[in-house]
Amino acid sequence: MTPVEFAMRFTLSHADVDIALTGTVNPDHLETNIKSMEAGDLPAELLHKVRNIFD
Fold this sequence. Notes:
The structure is a single chain. The chain is 62% helix and 0% strand. The protein has helices at residues 3-12, 27-39, 44-54. The protein is elongated, with a radius of gyration of 12 Å. The two termini are 23 Å apart.
């Protein structure tokens, strides 16, 4: 998973987040962002590990 995909999916994994604003002039980056969002939330186990790091 790329850092961009991780960041997008991590953001979308939060129930309190309704929208994640991104911007790009590069069509390839836009496609990557869309694919990351379509992949959905991070897997529960990974999300739990990440939250433990920040807690």
